[in-house]
Amino acid sequence: MAGDLEFEKPVIELKKKINELREYTKNTEMDLSSEIEKLEARLEKVEKEIYENIKPWDRVSIARHPERPTTLDYISLLFTDFFECHGDRLFGDDEAIVGGIAKFHGLPITVIGHQRGKDTKENIRRNFGMPHPEGYRKALRLMKQAEKFKRPIICFIDTKGAYPGKAAEERGQSEAIARNLFEMAGLKVPVICIVIGEGGSGGALALGVGNHVHMLENSTYSVISPEGAASILWRDASLAKKAAESMKITAPDLKELGIIDEIISEARGGAHRDVNQQAGEINRVLKASLKELSCLSEEELVDHRYKKYKLIGEYTSLNEYIGVN
Fold first, then answer.
1. Among 6, 44, 197, 262, which has the highest number of CB atoms less than 10 A from its own CB?
2. Which residues pair with 98 in a beta bridge?
């Protein structure tokens, strides 16, 4: 099957064997039902062993799967009356970020997300989901508009990182990301962020300052890619698998560290196996988050966001460090 991953090979081979026996049974008078039942039992056992013990690098592979659902896939399944907005009113329209106004169960919301392509042509048009500064400025324009009209903001995060090219730097890539971080921290409406694929570096954080931050089970969220980390730490990008093990970039790790609020379960093998089911899981979490956050005042929303990020990580004050009371 196109897009199958390395760690899934035992499952794929067993499924192939079962299908071959079923086809053979149809075309002959031989009864192979007992053999098929044995293989199905073994398949169930193998699937359980593989999918309940997925390694960090396997999750990285699933997050990068070419058929993994994108922001626009979820928008079409979760929201109604979506009206896409374009441009940052300064330079141009960056198609690596999509956003606009929609309704979620009748509630007007603003939805924004990274958008990669489904094929080579679209990936080139959308710069492989790596935004330029105008993409982040478009996102901020939509966020400020949402704040003005008191609409909750929903962000879908799925990028390897902000585009690091010369043109992006000339147009203020770092400033655009920093501005988003600053402004999102003070938004007076509910902000919900969901990592649906790769959440890479500042390019992801620029849409990631929310009251609630959720992650799909097989997504990743990190300051750098495993390949980049391996190149820095060991000067060998081929050690990316080792880096992924130590970086704590998976949803279970980040949940344990208190960086994300909830892990959204996926179908066995990843969200691409059943997009409708995945949209249903996201729908459930979004409804719960909006219900909880809608009870907070504007000041409480900002304070909630401040306290959330203040509690992340461990630190020691200078006085504590030098032993001064």
1. 197
2. 113
